[in-house]
Amino acid sequence: MNSKQPSRRGFLKNGAALAGLALGAMRPASGQTPASEAHSEEHLKDLIAYGERSHYVKSVRIPVMERMSPDDFGMTFHVLSPLQDSVGMITPSSLHYVATHRGSYVPDINPQEHRLMIHGMVDRPLIFTVEEIKRLPFVTRTHFLECSGNRARATHKTVQQTHGMTSCSEWTGVPLSLLLKEAGVQSGASFIVAEGAETVKGATSIPLAKAMDDCLVCYGQNGEAIRPQQGFPIRLIVPGFEGIHNIKYLRRIKVVEQHYMTYNDYGHIAADSRVAALNRQIGPKSVITFPSGEQKLPGPGFYEITGLAWSGSGAIRSVDISIDGGQTWTPAELRSPAYPMAHTRFGFHWTWDGKECVIMSRCTDELGTVQPTRADVAKYWNKPNDSDLQVPGTDNSVFPWRVASDGSVHNGLA
Ligand SMILES: Nc1nc2c(c(=O)[nH]1)N[C@H]1C(S)=C(S)[C@@H](COP(=O)(O)O)O[C@H]1N2
Ligand SMILES: [Mo]
Questions:
Q1: What is the atom index within ligand 1 of the atom nearest the CA of 98?
Q2: Are 248 and 99 in contact (CB under 8 A)?
Q3: Contact at 8 Å (CB) between 241 and 181?
Q4: Beta-carbon count within 10 A of 295 CB
Q5: Pocket (CB within 6 angstroms of ligand 1)
Q6: Contact 260, 191 (CB under 8 A)
């Protein structure tokens, strides 16, 4: 534990500030309704078969500000995960962000009819059923996904709006390398093109080295089948690469000699190799989820600043917090396992003095790469560092929350 932070024992001894809270919590619960009155027999049967959260819990996904979902055609555009309510490091599947389906509805795929074809520059082109994929040796790994559209604007109010296009799940599936070795990749191949099964196909080019390294063909998400919005029955997971590479409804992998300009790559790949590289692998990024925009601190006193950190290049090594707008930094504690290419939860003891301040987090990954400031990012792309900085690559800059003296929390870019 960092020496500048109060020790946990000291914190418990100084529990007086929280005594009022504890008393309230110990009062016997009243007004409980017997289950039989609250639910019909039908509903009770459903609940026994498949659980649901308490109706007191209201946390929900919302569409991005810039475009409504469902739209006039009943289609879903980008839908944001409620990071302000998140705890731990796993996003519940029902609250995972959803990327636009590129002009298609979420496909309703019968897993018995679905096939995955591997062809192109291989010795033995193969077609797998989902059952055949499930018979193969599998791994379970925790990885985040993030859309390149996940960028904070001054108009955004909450962390759901500034950062909600990232989520983290426990994924289960077969290493793609195993399937490719089974097919026998021919010499001269350097990329794969992966394609989804929708009307408008999601397709993407991925370097063969990445495909053979840690990509997974997944059928499991958080202990059950992948949800339709996340790619049922199978999806590709490309750990640490921009979300668009993680092809849902995966139905075809073609091994090819060079990068293919696919539907998805168009607009995401630039002539500038720096842009192309940044579009693939996501840099170290973090955000404070509490206290965050539109939350309110009831008054001065003890709080735990908490949030999430992740990197496309490996595990998170450390997170620092600033409570003075980035002038000084103090280490936070990692409060979850720090898996490679996974959300990592951090926490930081903070006693708020009731004065206006700007809080921010900054992470460092296992390569030693430090999350850049907005000024760094603006300078790198040769753009003015104004409140609506829009960079060509994934924006992983340090993000500020302004805590006003009345305890209300606001977007620090506004
Ligand atoms: N088949 C298919 N796969 C896809 C997409 C798509 O439209 N179709 N969108 C991609 C984009 S842009 C992102 S950011 C991720 C998002 O995954 P999610 O919707 O499960 O969060 O899926 C990618 N895979
Ligand atoms: Mo995306």
A1: 19
A2: no
A3: no
A4: 16
A5: 96-99, 101-102, 145, 147, 196, 198, 202, 230, 243-244, 246-249
A6: yes
- List Cα–Cα distances, 340 to 142, 200, 217, 313, 344, in angstroms: 8, 32, 18, 8, 9
Please, what's the b/e burial string for 166-181 (b: 16 or more CB within 10 A of its CB; e: otherwise)?
bbbbbbbbbbbebbbe
pLDDT digits (tens, 9 = 90+) for 301-354: 999 999 999 999 999 999 999 999 999 999 999 999 999 999 999 999 999 999
Confirm if 240 and 282 have CB atoms less than 8 A apart.
yes
Alpha helices in 176-242 (DSSP H): 176-183, 208-213
Strand, coil or helix: what is 14? coil
Q: Sorting pLDDT into bands at 50, 70 and 90, what band is 275?
A: low
CA of 47 to the centre of ligand 1 (A): 30
Atom 24 (ligand 1): residue with closest C-alpha? Answer: 247
List the residue whose alpha carbon is closest to atom 18 of ligand 1: 98
